[in-house]
Each structure stands twice: as structure tokens, then as C-alpha cells.
Amino acid sequence: MLTSHRVKHFVKLGLALVLFAQPSAQIFALSKTPDLGSNATNIQPTEDYVEPEEYPQKLKDWYAQNMDARSYIAVDAETHRVLAQKEGNTPYPIASMSKVISIYLVYKALDEGALKMDQMITVSDAIAEGIASNVNLSNVGLVAGVEYSVEDLIYGVMLESGNDATSALMWEIYGSEEAAVQAIRDQLQAWNITNFQFYSTSGAPNEELPESLWVAGSGVDDENIMSASDVALMTQYAVEAYPAILDVTSTPEYLFKEGTEYERPLYNPNLLLPGALYGREGNLGVKSGFTDDAGRNFVAVGDENGRRIVSVVMGVVGEDPSTGEPLTAYWDQEILLDGLLDYPELYQNENLPTNLPAEPEPEEVEEEAGEATEEPADPNLENRRDNPLTNFMRNIFSIFN
């Protein structure tokens, strides 16, 4: 039954400080108040999904009354049907949700033999001084000259949201931040995801990175940007290809650098995991993200109503008027998923739009193949979705989590 989540949320937030006061760089960073100012609205508007006439108005109204997210989407993983959305096709900053595609490429390298799980990676001065030492970034705290296993770094990425751990892994595979970013762009293009901007492997905005790590042609204002729909698609492709990613993101706690002087526990900050504040029995992760312009974000994978659902909440801002604590993307995820529980018939509605990109027309493929020998591919091509999208540019000033 659809009832207001406001009172329920106030009670839960009151318990949060007692039940989940675990050391986590990500949790601490969420105490910041995001600034979704004018810089966050410079993206050109895009045509949104259109629900069929029979879509339940009561559900739409309930979401409008209870959710704070700037954009969101819930997708049935089997059919790709969009079960619920708001501005699902509109690109916004995605912050640390960027790490999903990076960790996919790490597992791809493991699969292809380019990496081994027990392989040791020595941290460079560039990562230690340029990333790990930045207190504005969420980091594991990698130390120059110290060796870390690939496994430790993977958990550092997905549990601690370590920007330093992300770059350490990606540089080991591709040699540099720029080459790794290009690999990300190429992979997204291969998935026919085209309406994006990608400038860092971790989601850290250029403003927080040394200029030596900026991708050629980018500037201080640049930050990774995608739509909720594309984040959902990217995440689904990643975890379906490598389900072991979900083994990591569903782990409550991991002992980092066990048996060394750097040993310490990493705690999973995902409040949707079973037993957590907003716990759901079927939740398996995956990744949060925060910058001032991105707000609070979370992409989740889990089983609801017997279906595998990929849900994305983006741009949650503001404070709980009862406690003064920041609102969280976990709360909005709970509302989004709870709403669908009362409408199982949505899963069977063949009139719902899907989040699959439209395949290029045959003549377009032939033309692009001919042009490929003349000039390199543009990583920010026009999006060919069911609804046409326009390219966008924007300036962002933010602090990354």
C-alpha cells in the first residue's frame, strides 16, 4: 500500500547514528551539502521516456510526493523495460558510479589474463601524491612504493570508493589515466552507449586532480556525465558479464592488507544491504557516488517481486528537517523499489519503453565504417535512443566522494 515515507524516514535517520556508526570515508563525505547550482543545469534538455496511457497515475504521484532525486530509473533486467523514471534520459554528473565501468574493465583484464587476483601492484608517486593525499577525495590511502594485491585494490574501489585504488588498477592495465579513460569510452561505445562525457576512471572531477592527469582537451570544469538510463545499462552489462563484482559489492566487511602494518577493515557503506538501515533481502550492491554538483547517487542491483531490477537514483540533495542530517540516495532507492511492489503487473506491460539504445540503421553503419579510416571516433557522439537526444556541454565545480 502506498503511504508517505516521510515519517518512516525520520525514524530511520534517528537510528542511523547508533546502528551504522562505522568508519567509512564515504559516509563521512556524505555530511557535505551538495551545491546543485547554475553549473549543474547547463546540460541541454533531452526528450524523456513516455509511459503508456495505462501507466498507474497513482504510482507517479506517489513518487513525486515522496522522492527527492533529480533523476531516477528502475529497469527490469530481463526485458529492459523502464518500470519507473524521472528524467531518465537526461545526463547529469555521476561521480563514483563511474567506478562500475572501471571495475568491469579490471575483471575483463583478469578474465583475459592481463591481471591476476594475487598480483601485487606497486603504488607510484603520481597516485600517492596526486590522488591519495587529496583530502577532498575518497581514498584508501595508498602509500608510494608499497605493494597492494589486485584483490585488495578491488575491494578498496567498491567498498571504500577509493579513487587511488581505481587509478592504481587501471594504470596497471592501460599504462596511464588517459589511456584508461579511452578504454572506458571505447567500451561504452561498444555497448552503443554514446551520450556521455568521461574524463576520469574514478569519477573524480578534473578540479580535484593534478592537471597532469587530465585527459587531453579537457579543462578544470570537466566531470563524468551520463544519464540514469545509461548508468543502469552500463551496470547491468558489467555485472552480467562478471557476476563476481556483486560478490564484492554485497560483502559487509573486508580486511584490507591483512597481516601487514597497513591492515584495516573496510566497511560496506551500502545501506540497502540485508540487515542495514534500508535493507532489502534481494539487494546485491552496487555503487554510490557524490560530488557537489552530482548530489548523492546510488545504482543498485537486486531482486524484487521475483525479478532482477537495476535502479538508479541521482541528484539527491538537502537535509532532513527533523534531524538536520543529509538526505540519502538510499532512502530514495527504498521509495522507488517499494512503489513497484504494489504494481507487479508493470513487469508484463509490453508498452513500456526500454532503456536499450536503438541499433544504427544499416546505411549508418556502412557510412561510419568508411569514415573510420579517415578520423578517430568521437567519444561524445549523438545518442541514438528510442527518443532522440541532443549533445551537451556544461561546467561543473564540485568536490568528489
Automatic annotation (TrEMBL):
Residues 350-388 are annotated as: Disordered. It holds the Pfam family Peptidase_S11. The keyword Protein transport does not apply. GO terms for biological process: cell wall organization; peptidoglycan biosynthetic process; proteolysis; regulation of cell shape. The active site is at 96 (acyl-ester intermediate), 99 (proton acceptor), 161. Substrate binds at residue 287. Residues 65-316 form the Peptidase S11 D-alanyl-D-alanine carboxypeptidase A N-terminal domain. Keywords: Cell shape, Cell wall biogenesis/degradation, Hydrolase, Peptidoglycan synthesis, Signal. Residues 1-21 form the signal peptide. InterPro entries: Beta-lactam/transpept-like (IPR012338), Peptidase_S11 (IPR018044), Peptidase_S11_N (IPR001967). Residues 360-377 have a biased composition (Acidic residues). SUPFAM superfamilies: beta-lactamase/transpeptidase-like. One of its GO terms (molecular function) is serine-type D-Ala-D-Ala carboxypeptidase activity. Belongs to the peptidase S11 family. This is Peptidase S11 D-alanyl-D-alanine carboxypeptidase A N-terminal domain-containing protein. It comes from Suicoccus acidiformans. The lineage of its organism: Bacteria, Bacillati, Bacillota, Bacilli, Lactobacillales.
